[in-house]
From TrEMBL, chains A, B:
Pfam families, sorted: Aminotran_1_2, GntR
GO MF term (any one): DNA binding
Family: In the C-terminal section; belongs to the class-I pyridoxal-phosphate-dependent aminotransferase family.
Occurrences of domain HTH gntR-type (ranges): 12-80
SMART domains documented for this protein: HTH_GNTR
InterPro entries xrefs: Aminotransferase_I/II_large, HTH_trans_reg/aminotransferase, PyrdxlP-dep_Trfase, PyrdxlP-dep_Trfase_major, PyrdxlP-dep_Trfase_small, Tscrpt_reg_HTH_GntR, WH-like_DNA-bd_sf, WH_DNA-bd_sf
Keywords, sorted A to Z: DNA-binding, Pyridoxal phosphate, Transcription, Transcription regulation
Name this polypeptide is given: Putative transcriptional regulator, GntR family
């Protein structure tokens, strides 16, 4: 075991120096997965330190989930860490908007990611969906023709039934982002102001900037949009973008009163309000009402996506709005060549018709509830008491505000090195002592481990 | 047989009045498919006309493909015509840009459509593609996660091999329109001028207008862009959009000299040239070279799409350009939420890897050649001699200029009523005596019939 250099004058304890340097060697691949570390006795001898110091270092590596000690087998590396290059790529991804490629990359790198609020691909029984596709053997060859810009009639029909609306008021999109993009492009012009809940969704900043739109940020707490702020900020805005049922960052839930006031303001001022409802079905205690159930005025628009609770790779979302606006969006889809895949939409329609989506939700919601419990019990027992957060009633995320005054500059980098990425609040335009922890893709045991590792890092920085 | 009203003073011959009114009754459904027309004797009696007049009217209906006479069985309706409402919808569709929903609608209406330059869905062996999808049963659940914005690595790899380029120079899109849209959005700003071949693709007008771009139209003949026109028009334009290998309207084919000059002008002036190559593989006598094979300069960009020769419903196209531009397009796909479907891309990658695309092309090209022959022999033998056209060496369309001075105002309407829609030249910004005939979706016998019907209509209007 060479290459360890101890600085005996440093304020960093020796055991921590040893652990950090071994961690670097694990990250670089110098100590690969399965490799056995030197015995405590031999390493203590070669470094000229007490055995207790090496023991402490190994204990620390173990608490990071990097090594495991077994009687008779010594201490082995049980986890690969992302290389510097992979870390850099991951860090860049996190900053560059909707993270289509983040999770597979971080999963391949052996990370326990709390970074993205997406459903667990492993919970999607893709055999059920593939069975629907297999039935297309008997379908008309037109199933492999273009899908109509507003979506295949069969899928529009199935979704409209599901959401109790008319087919002509529904347009199929490639997911929520595509839907919101179409709406903003149709309703707004560069320079227009959009009122949005703060914090919003990951990548919202670049999403709005790309269109030359100006975000007017209205603070949102556990009960969603702050009504006073909403009333004072709404003047002069072109549209409102909100998520009354489980904010993508915070898991906030707006009470009926707030929903009514949002709708009232939109109608009174003749501005559009876009409800992004794509976490709404992940509701742990009954589904909250949609804004469209309070008003079908043309100013109330709903966006949904199966990417939030079924499988992102199906790229299926939709807009519900009045016919006239749907017609304009249809022309826009035509003009941008962004219609979906006919055969996939046909298979999805069959999936919905057979009640498989409802069955899926019944199956997965208890699991997400258990994952949320693993995450919040970690917050309760492993994190500093002064952390502020609330237990969301739905969605896939918990928003945490850490004690002010802590030194969190390197928190993201250090958690990434330990295999536990999260979404820093800064990505949502929030202060550096905030972060979003998402519990969609990890199993409860992984979440427990991740929260222990992350909690320790946070506590170290609060002291 | 009631409801026939003859105007004996009209300049329109009686037999034609009878035929036209029976045609209307077929279109309205009053004479449904399979219905037997009255005998010649009884109709002549009730209308008080000569039997020869009724015989002539029935012969005309037969020549339109609407009825069939059999000895012992009389004359029956063998074709349904679109109702007034369906006709109206079809006519509106044709005018409203890329016609995602035109062909299935016209096929359902029993039309022999020559209107859209798309491949025949019936020639796509979708079982082969579904077999690839069935293999996803054993794939990682991440196959049902988001596809990366630049496309799934497996598909990028397979396409890059196919086109002899680097993976980092290729970005998967949802087809050619999506690719061109991304490029125009990235490279141009509202008010910019784009040099395009005239006639271009269907819907190009709205495609450019939606982006506030100004089309500078350079005339294109059988040999593609006119070089003198190109040189004199290129000043001040921001980009060139062209299809040296089989124009979507004309089937034009640019010689090597023209290709070299286009590339030279782009490089000299530092403007981008976008080659839309998505009909290039449908080549009846060997595939012409790509602009990218003449220069890999960053100014030479290629767009392709499987919608031109495999199946539009897979929504798979791609851009080939230098890495830097591909990176910018990747960000744009991320920001617009317009990435494709991971599982579909994975299946396509398998399809390509097994050489199925090459086999598909080998199988379908002789068929498209036969369809082209059916269409051009119709032009040769059934149409007025003064019609100008050339036999394209690839692609799916023939461009026809009819004798000037003919009365073509009602040609599209009348051909639609007879079940033979085409794409009027006006949709491409061309004079009213031009039209595009496409031979992708109809079998040779249908094309022969369609050309006979249409030829007769044209001849009537030239006289």
């Amino acid at each position: 075991m060479t290459g360890l250099r101890l600085e005996r004058d440093s304020s960093e304890p020796i055991y921590q120096q040893i652990a950090e340097q071994l961690r670097s060697q694990i990250a670089s691949g110098a100590l690969p997965l399965g490799c056995r570390l030197p015995t405590v006795r031999s390493l203590a001898g070669s470094l000229d330190v007490a055995r207790q110091t090496v023991l402490e270092a190994y204990r620390l590596l173990g608490s990071w989930g990097l090594t495991e000690a077994r009687v008779g087998d010594g201490t082995r590396v049980v986890r690969e860490l992302p290389s510097a290059e992979a870390r850099e790529r991951l860090a860049a991804l996190l900053a560059s908007g909707p993270m289509a490629d983040y999770e597979p990359l971080s999963s391949a790198g052996g990370l326990r990611s709390l970074a993205t609020a997406v459903p667990d691909p492993a919970l999607f029984l893709h055999d059920e969906f593939l069975a629907e596709i297999a039935e297309l053997r008997n379908a008309s060859p037109w199933a492999f023709y273009y899908a109509p810009p507003a979506g295949l009639p069969e899928l529009r029909y199935a979704l409209a039934r599901e959401r109790e609306t008319a087919e002509a008021e529904l347009l199929v999109t490639l997911g929520a982002n595509h839907a919101i993009g179409l709406l903003l492009d149709e309703l707004c012009s560069p320079g227009d102001q959009i009122l949005v809940e703060e914090p919003g969704f990951l990548g919202m900043e670049s999403f709005l900037t790309m269109r030359g739109l100006v975000a007017v940020r209205a603070p949102s707490g556990s009960a969603g949009l702050d009504l006073d702020a909403l009333r004072s900020l709404v003047k002069g805005v072109k549209a409102i973008l909100c998520w009354p049922s489980f904010g993508p960052a915070t898991g906030s839930l707006a009470p009926l009163e707030t929903r009514r006031e949002i709708v009232r303001l939109a109608e009174e001022r003749g501005i559009y309000v876009v409800e992004d409802a794509h976490y709404r079905p992940i509701a742990f205690y009954g589904q909250p009402p949609r804004l469209r159930s309070l008003s079908r005025s043309r100013f109330v628009v709903e966006v949904d996506s199966l990417s939030g609770y079924l499988a992102p790779g199906l790229r299926a979302g939709w807009v519900i709005a009045d016919r006239e606006l749907i017609g304009r969006l249809e022309q826009r889809v035509r003009g941008t060549g962004s219609a979906g895949l006919g055969f996939s939409q046909l298979a999805l329609a069959g999936y919905l018709r057979k009640g498989r989506l409802a069955a899926h939700l019944e199956r997965v919601i208890p699991r997400y509830r258990a994952r949320r419990a693993a995450l919040t019990s970690g917050l309760r027992f492993e994190w500093p008491d002064e952390s502020a957060w609330f237990e969301p009633l739905g969605g896939l995320s918990v928003w945490v505000t850490l004690p002010t005054g802590g030194r969190y500059e390197d928190l993201y980098e250090q958690s990434l090195i330990r295999g536990v990425p999260f979404a820093p609040g800064a990505l949502f335009g929030a202060p550096s002592n905030t972060l979003r922890l998402s519990f969609g893709t990890q199993r409860p045991e992984s979440i427990q481990e991740a929260m222990a590792i992350l909690g320790r890092l946070v506590r170290d920085r609060v002291r």
